[in-house]
Design goal:
The chain contains ten helices and nine strands. By secondary structure, the chain is α+β, with helices and mostly antiparallel strands. It has one domain. The strands form four sheets. A three-stranded antiparallel sheet has the order 5-6-7. Strand 1 and strand 2 form a beta hairpin. Helix 4 crosses helix 7 and helix 8 packs across helix 9.
Length: 333
């Protein structure tokens, strides 16, 4: 009788412990979802074009890194905080320290551009929406990038310069550094550089650009320090014919679990203003509130007032690729 009672008590204690653990995990998951912004999924091709406008005129390799890294928004936040705490690291020391972090290769590659990471952290809702769109249908996202490049070229604002080389391969526009080991980040207003003005992405923060509807450039960033690692600049690019991001000569596959169970779309693919349902498609009636409206105009941009090495770059007031702020130059590169 005592043995039976002892077993019953132990079983009851174990059940209580399991229930408490499940409750704690449930609360943690709810808290995490409350902390992270919910993505706003595009409803049309125009919405996708608005979403990629801040990055469409970057060099191909950098666009590939950003799209891949946007599927890891929590790691972007971690990387930005880490870069701020380790702002004294530069060159080979920075690359070696980044290599030790438990981040995806795309996030590691972006640390070569701290201001880009800073902007993605500051505009986390935009970053999350970009990652969600890319996860659901990267072909439509890459189509939108090409559409925006064509618009900028037609407006006379995208062309070969001493900083970048722009070439056309069939209907595809390729942007790459003019010098193989140096990247000059473009500076432009993404809402006017494409010709006819487009609406600002809702809630996107940047410093107003007071220049004309053209592209300028900040100081060059040397790419060689990160080239010795398998995740560095040379590993990234596109197969434009197949509309896929390439990482180390193979299609990039995101292993992020962020968009599972977060109330977002996973498995549904954006196509021509509607989503194709598929495994994990959660909300066929979803409509993103306010998408395509003017949104928040209190934009802060990539730098937030810091020097380029930390989180911005020099060269006049404004921002680049949707947010680089001018002001102070120098710093990490």
């Amino acid at each position: 009788m005592k043995r039976t009672l002892g077993l019953t008590v132990r079983r009851l204690a174990m059940l209580i412990a399991i229930a408490a653990t499940m409750l704690a995990l449930g609360r943690a998951q709810v808290f995490a979802q409350m902390q992270m912004p919910q993505p706003q999924m595009p409803e049309s091709q125009a919405d996708l074009q608005q979403l990629v406008a801040p990055i469409a005129l970057y060099p191909d390799e950098l666009v590939a890194e950003i799209l891949a890294a946007s599927t890891y928004p929590t790691q972007i936040v971690q990387a930005d905080r880490w870069l701020q705490q380790n702002s004294g690291l530069q060159g080979e020391q920075l690359a070696a320290a980044v290599d030790q972090q438990m981040w995806d290769s795309s996030v590691k590659a972006l640390t070569e551009f701290p201001s880009v990471v800073s902007n993605m952290d500051r505009n986390l809702s935009w970053t999350t929406s970009l990652g969600e769109a890319y996860v659901n249908d990267q072909q439509d996202v890459l189509d939108a990038v090409q559409v925006m490049r064509q618009r900028a070229e037609n407006a006379g604002n995208l062309q070969t310069t001493p900083q970048q080389r722009v070439t056309t391969e069939g209907s595809t526009i390729v942007i790459e550094p003019a010098v193989a080991d140096t990247c000059y980040l473009p500076v432009y207003d993404p809402w006017v550089v494409y010709g006819a003005p487009i609406p600002v992405y809702p809630g996107y923060f940047y410093d107003p650009w007071y220049g004309g509807p053209y592209i300028a450039f900040g100081r060059g960033i040397r790419l060689g320090f990160f080239g010795g690692f398998g995740w560095g600049w040379p590993a990234w690019g596109f197969n434009w014919g197949r509309r896929v991001v390439i990482f180390n000569r193979a299609p990039f596959v995101s292993h992020s679990r962020f968009f599972y169970g977060a109330g977002g779309f996973r498995g549904g693919a954006f196509r021509g203003g509607a989503f194709r349902t598929g495994p994990g498609f959660r909300s066929p009636g979803f409509r993103s509130p306010g998408f395509g409206s003017r949104g928040n105009h209190a934009f802060r941009g990539f730098s937030g007032g810091h020097g380029f090495g930390g989180h911005g770059f020099g060269g006049g007031r404004g921002f680049g690729g949707g947010g680089f702020r001018g002001g102070r130059g120098g710093g990490r590169h």
